[in-house]
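Sample intake sheet
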Amino acid sequence: MGITKLLPELSEFTSTDVDLSVVLKAKRVVVDASVWLHQFLFYFATATNHEEVIVARVVRRARRLIELGAFVIVVLDSIDTVMPAKAITIEERRIRRAEAYARATGGEDSSKQTTVSQYHVTDKLVRHLITRLHRDGFTYVVAPFEADHQMVHLVKGGHADYVLTVDSDVASHGVPIVSHTDWSTLRGTVVHVQTGEGRHSQSRVADAVHQHGTEILHTLGALVGCDYGGEIGVGWAKALDILAAGDVHDKYPNVLDREKAFRGGWVYDITTKKCCTLDGSEPSEAIVGVLPAGDPNDRALGQMITGDLGDRHQLFRAGDACPQALTYDMVPNSYLSDTRIASSAVTTNELKAWLRARGLPLSHDGRDDKSTLLDMVRAERCMEKERADKGDARPVRLCCTGDCA
């Protein structure tokens, strides 16, 4: 996904076989849950209660990052809008996935349409995941259109440190990504494209980045092939030659539209609670889409709000008593719902993270077993409720220094 064969061209900016327990400890990590849904759907599309199985797998994977000491923000693609510049790519990708699934399961060509329909991340599946994320206290953001743009916005806006994704588009924006994660060993590849004035490299792509900045990758991507309109038909060497000649937009005028698609996609600003374009430019609606009315998170939650889920905006309101505020005076991963506390699946690391975020001891009388920590959390929660009733809420903060574990 993303720009054709980009990551091999970025070897100068790449670290391989990285220990994620070190890199992501006490870091804010944005994860692309839409990709995870597709990955798990491939394996569990025909399983009994497959939606429940897939959602459980996604949540389990997010919890593994939390157990490393990371602060996790889950991002999802919009469920009711498609970016015009990417519409054809999305449909082609959907069919390719269905064909791959049919081959893997011995399906026949005659059942292709049925397989396409079956092997598809539905609105129902996404809403099922959002319900679970909401219930379990995860911080999540539903993008107005593309998760890629939303994740870049969160990092550039200072709300996150890394993006965990397999999509090379994100790396082209100069934000650090973790890709090719081996979940059995928790090791992966880190790519962080950074410019260096006057630097020279053996790689022509790296030289172009140092000379022109990371945005030149969008121009090159438009030439070699990307999600926004397919391939023009040139390889990396030819694309670099065209760039050096200085007549990219004269020879290939549609490159400009693709650059706008990379840079000007819609995002949800968690500070203003409004949607805007990634680069702050006026939206080119024929390329990035017409923004529907209302909050994309509310639209995604939609008819799913029942019982005690409450107001979705509690998860974003700065200074709110709900420990989901993305201003980081509170810690989303320090949130433990009553359901989670009552569950045997709650981990010692989660309980310690909850206590640590409040500056509380991590043991009692020298004991730090799960039972003791649960008693400590329950006691503090009762005190928090009493303080909240009195209007005296204790601030909760995220330690990013790495020395508070």
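Comment: Strands lie at 14-19, 28-32, 71-76, 139-142, 162-164, 177-182, 187-191, 266-269, 274-277. The chain has a mean pLDDT of 76.
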